[in-house]
Specification:
heterodimer; A: 112 residues; mainly beta; five-stranded mixed β-sheet; 9 strands; B: mainly beta
Chain lengths: 112, 113
């Protein structure tokens, strides 16, 4: 599986937008870009995923670079509840195991 | 919306004891997974079940067994618990297909003394 690189930590102020970057320079053409987050003492939570085009849902937006070597998860207005570890994960259709391969992620702190 | 339900939430065992962690999902998902998460580390796959009636080993299967009881339920058994199995265990489920999002339970925190 292709590797992703994320900053170890980021800080944001409440009600401000947050842009969480992810580099994946060895991404293949069929790899989907998935984002999960893990709040303290909870299981990971699916946030969003995309292939080539930018994606929006009720939780966040995903901006994918034209060359697909990087992507950015955008939280439009951070709340205290958004403080979590955010994981950027590449997923390739057809892999036999189907498991998610978690890196260290980005720990997001949100200040009131 | 229950989603993925894991029981128990907490458990303390003595070395050598056995126990079964239960997982059930109500989303009609085909695939189910068991992961473990150790402090400061990402999740690692123990076993998975791509569909009802099939199970396969993941990255760290030693010391564990699984049963896909039906489409809803996927249990993880520790036959003879060891301190190295102290961890937080997460169950997840998804529709068939490796690009499908996975939905996780809240975890079982297991301590083995």
């Amino acid at each position: 599986d292709a590797k992703t690189t994320q900053p170890n930590s980021m800080e944001s102020n409440e009600e401000e937008p947050v842009h969480l970057p992810c580099n994946h320079s060895t991404i293949s053409g069929t790899d989907y870009i998935h984002w999960y987050r893990q709040l303290p003492s909870q299981g990971p939570e699916y946030v969003i995923h995309g292939l080539t085009s930018n994606v929006n849902n009720r939780m966040a937006s995903l901006a994918i670079a034209e060359d697909r070597k990087s992507s950015t998860l955008i939280l439009h207005r951070a709340t205290l509840r958004d403080a979590a570890v955010y994981y950027c994960i590449l997923r390739r259709p057809g892999r036999s195991q189907g498991n998610l391969i978690f890196g260290k992620g980005t720990k997001l702190s949100v200040k009131p | 919306n229950a989603g993925v339900t894991q029981t128990p939430k907490f458990q303390v065992l003595k070395t050598g004891q056995s126990m079964t962690l239960q997982c059930a999902q109500d989303m009609n998902h085909n695939s189910m997974y068991w992961y473990r998460q150790d402090p400061g580390m990402g999740l690692r796959l123990i076993y998975y079940s791509a569909s009802e009636g099939t199970t396969d080993k993941g990255e760290v299967p030693n010391g564990y067994n699984v049963s896909r009881l039906n489409k809803r339920e996927f249990s993880l058994r520790l036959e003879s618990a060891a301190p190295s199995q102290t961890s937080v265990y997460f169950c997840a489920s998804s529709l068939r297909g490796t690009a499908q999002p996975q939905h996780f339970g809240d975890g079982t925190r297991l301590s083995i003394l």
